[in-house]
Amino acid sequence: MSQSYEMMYIMRPDLLDEQVQQQINKYRDFLSEHKAEEIQIKNLGKRRLAYPIKKYTDGFYVQMNYKGDGKQVAPIERAMRLSDEVIRYLTIKLRDEQVAAIAPTDAIEPAESPKLVETKPMAPSPKPPVEEIPEADEISAEE
Fold first, then answer.
1. How high is the pLDDT of residue 124?
2. pTM given for the model
3. Which of 44, 64, 81, 117 is a Cys-bridge partner for 7, taking CB atoms 3.0 to 4.6 Å apart?
């Protein structure tokens, strides 16, 4: 029986684009050799990590969706664990309703960053009234 899996992995930020592409192709070929089907890859590009991993604060994120009998998970995770380029990985088994929500794509290009939308500048807020505080000389004269 074929089960759907999603794997997300993060590669070192100091890799060149060609090296990132080589690693993506390496793991795609690895899954193909281990009889995985319907391999979909999304290169999400370089992003900031939520917390440092192995002293890195950025990394290249890649998401892979595939179908297989489960025999592919351990070998690819072992290959990633032994790789110097991959700093973190996670594989999850998808339920049927999760699989239906995933749009099929073979995009390997990095996702575009969101476009900035121009907004009107806000009107300056009125300054609060400032109370004058008597100086020290005036206070001592009143006493």
1. 63
2. 0.66
3. 64
